[in-house]
Write a structure and sequence with these properties.
The structure is a homotetramer of 147-residue chains. By secondary structure, the first copy, chain A, is of the alpha+beta class. In chain A, 26% of the residues lie in helices and 43% in strands. Chain A has 3 helices and 6 strands; from the N terminus they run ααββαββββ. Chain A has a 6-stranded antiparallel β-sheet with strand order 1-2-4-5-6-3. In chain A, a hairpin with a 4-residue loop joins strand 4 and strand 5. Chains A and C meet through strand 3 of A and strand 3 of C.
Chain lengths: 147, 147, 147, 147
């Protein structure tokens, strides 16, 4: 893969992420974009908490869904956009820590459908604890660029 | 079921919802609480949008997860709390409208595990369009009241 | 819908089911085919049991997956075939009884993707107990008839 | 871990597998049992096929569900049994080959709930192709040994 097209997918993902108001609302940021791999960070702040002071499971789902969806976008042509068809999330431990890290990766790229996974880790004093696991199906909309 | 205990579960659900900062952040409100049925409303506002101006799929998941989880809570004893073990969400149509309505219901109540479903509708000029469907597993933590 | 095309989809579903060796292996039969609704019956016999004498969860998944997939097929054109992209199954009670009944239905028909649900009931002396619930995504392959 | 208890879990898994008539029906065999990892093989034969001559998606689900469930059983005490609460399966490529290999592994062991994954590969002339991916929730029934 040429460095030009690599710049292309990084640029496309960053531009799309920047247009997601919901990511700004929860204060998520795009930490890393590689081909087939995207990482999103979420600081633990009071606005994203559920009733016990942990990060809300739905917010964990938001960053997992986005990280994996953008991982899929790194594998699609410039003139395509991606759509989250469905995802399944297991919440395995309280999302407790200073920060959450969601790592999305492509498991199987297809022309029309892309299957992805995401892991979400709670980070406390540099130690990561796996707190959620997601499996997702993405649809590629050819001829419908993101913008 | 006596009206006293009915007041109890309505009260418990409302108190717990009120402590979820993440629900306030997205401006979701608890519209209805009945035994086995909970409805959450989300106005469409710019803060919850994804890159195409629809409500973010992860936000759709948040209200679906919460509506169904609270539906489960209406079936548990006072001294128990509920935990979302996992959920699976199909996004079927753009979450486009003036408001989203998430309706969670209990499919099978068990002592330890409760299976639920939620439907999310986009409301436009009074017409509802089904835009998401969720299936969820809830764990009941006996002897651990919400507060 | 004309009776001719109705015959068409019933015929297509029955022909496809008849070619599924795996359905014959477990002794499943196609009990009903209507537009958007398909019912499969499975007698309880020793060959489909797991270690506790109930029907194996994977076999429950087989009839749920097939019932819902064929429900999707009733909504597609003659020159299309259907593919099960993914399904999620909750096993809620032991699959115990003289017979299992799987009822698949279309929740949202789309041109490329169809979202379906299936319920599986254990039947004992005429009483049905819900033992499994499934949510599924089907892909429509246009221009690729079943045969 | 002592070799005695290792023998224990291998023995428990093999004994339970041997009592699953449904595994014998589809001609699946237990190829490997390690702590947290179980492998099931399925020869491709006519009885497990769907209408296009590939292995039925539901049969793929059966071996994935079993491999991951038995992986969970390797992590539980002798006096406990395991129950498949739910699983979600993505079918990513036709299950085509001389044999299928399902590899189940434990992602997060808990006292009451265990989260697992399974991958299913189609093997053709020694080459493996990933054809399915599963995420599963297992419940541990303490004080209820398998037999």
């Amino acid at each position: 893969m040429s460095s030009v097209s690599e710049l292309d997918f990084v640029e496309r993902v960053r531009a799309s992420f920047g247009r997601q108001n919901a990511m700004a609302l929860i204060q998520a940021n795009l930490a890393d974009v590689q081909q087939g791999l995207v990482e999103i960070h979420l600081p633990h702040w009071h606005g994203v908490e559920q009733q016990h002071g942990f990060v809300h499971g739905g917010v964990v789902g938001m960053i997992a869904d986005s990280a994996a969806g953008y991982a899929a976008m790194t594998m699609t042509p410039d003139d395509a956009s991606v759509l989250s068809v469905e995802f399944k999330l297991n919440l395995m431990a309280p999302a407790d820590g200073e920060m959450l890290v969601a790592r999305g990766k492509v498991v199987r790229p297809g022309r029309t459908l892309i299957v992805t996974q995401a892991e979400v880790f709670a980070v406390r004093e540099g130690n990561e604890t796996l707190c959620a696991l997601m499996q997702q199906t993405i649809m590629v909309m050819h001829g419908k660029p993101e913008r």
